[in-house]
């Protein structure tokens, strides 16, 4: 067996990847390995990849080069979505020693410890994603204030632009009882906020006896967790009963929803194979705001989808202007292998995609500032984080307003009642302690 001592991790992509990297890193530490930073000359580099955009693919290749500059003799392992989708392509990147697909990534230590020496050829281990049936629980630890708890994996939706079902397989989850046990582990740490994450978390239970709403109600009873955020949930799965519970009945779920829209054009929503129309989306936002006007609502939007006309882009802009949302995550459509959208033809020129992205980013800034302005003068609860930036510390209110305050180590990982006073030049809210 090769005597590796130090291991470093780099995660690309979503909160779900971060939760899985953290779980894998703990298994290394339990196995006697020392977890170090990428720059600390580790013996093993583990890169957990994303494949939502082309840039994520390129970033993977850049990280391999960086790893080999740090330690030319280092062992480089690639896991994650890109590894499942394009294992052979990755194996041809100079310096990559091991590529593990979705079924194998949680067994990475076993693969490494089977080796007697660094191999001349890359070892690739993956199976058809159709064989991926197990749900492996995961949660992140490292950020003292917050943990990402994986409650679901995979997706059955097959939106025409998305590779995630090809990379992660069908929708699946553990039972509510098992999920609660993972949450209870977090509740016994110093972490105070949990973000529920997955690929399509509202699909928890997949039509069986247990539902996402059932899970939410049970999680609300777990001791030691002060706050829950729902990372992202499809509008057709965010029922009024979930909204009502989180905003009016729950003790720990905060007034913050992130709800993907993708387009304000019903023709494009159908072409994307989304499971709702914009009218349902508007109804969800209106109901949330009728219960709690101070709720923060984030939105995912894709621009430049094949066939998106100027008129349809303006339809999306006008729709977003008219509804009471708080910020946007703007994604520029990128062509992905083996997706149905590739067959649609009529690609939007990249220069047009960039211009549309710029306009939506400007709209997002306006929406966020307007939401922040609505909160000036209000009393909120802030959970302060560990970061220090030139004598300043940061935190988030329950409704996701980012707050700054003069650094005080005694405030780290504590809840403080504050009055929001003004928006600083950097767009972050200033406050005073109560």
Main features:
Rossmann fold, alpha/beta, Transcription Regulator spoIIAA, 434 residues, single chain
Give me the secondary-structure topology:
Layout: E1 6-11, H1 15-30, E2 34-35, E3 44-49, H2 54-70, E4 75-80, H3 81-85, H4 87-91, E5 98-100, H5 108-113, E6 123-125, E7 138-139, E8 146-150, H6 164-168, H7 176-187, E9 193-197, H8 212-219, E10 227-230, H9 240-249, E11 253-262, H10 266-271, H11 278-291, E12 296-303, H12 310-322, E13 327-332, H13 350-375, E14 379-389, E15 392-397, E16 402-406, E17 415-423, E18 429-433
Describe the protein.
The protein is of the alpha/beta class and 434 residues long. The protein has four domains: 6-127, Rossmann fold (3-Layer(aba) Sandwich), CATH 3.40.50; 131-231, Transcription Regulator spoIIAA; 258-373, Transcription Regulator spoIIAA; 379-433, OB fold (Dihydrolipoamide Acetyltransferase, E2P) (Beta Barrel), CATH 2.40.50. The chain contains 13 helices and 18 strands. A seven-stranded mixed sheet has the order 7-8-9-10-11-12-13, with helices on both faces. Strand 14 and strand 15 form a beta hairpin.
**CATH level 1 class label of the largest domain:** Alpha Beta
Compute the average pLDDT: 93
* Count of separate DSSP helical elements: 13
CA(first)-CA(last) distance: 59 Å
Shape: globular
Give me the count of strands.
18
Q: Assign the structural class, choosing from mainly alpha, mainly beta, alpha/beta, alpha+beta, or little secondary structure.
A: alpha/beta
Task: Provide a quick synopsis of the model.
With 434 residues, this protein is of the alpha/beta class. The protein has 13 helices and 18 strands. 33% of the residues lie in helices and 24% in strands.
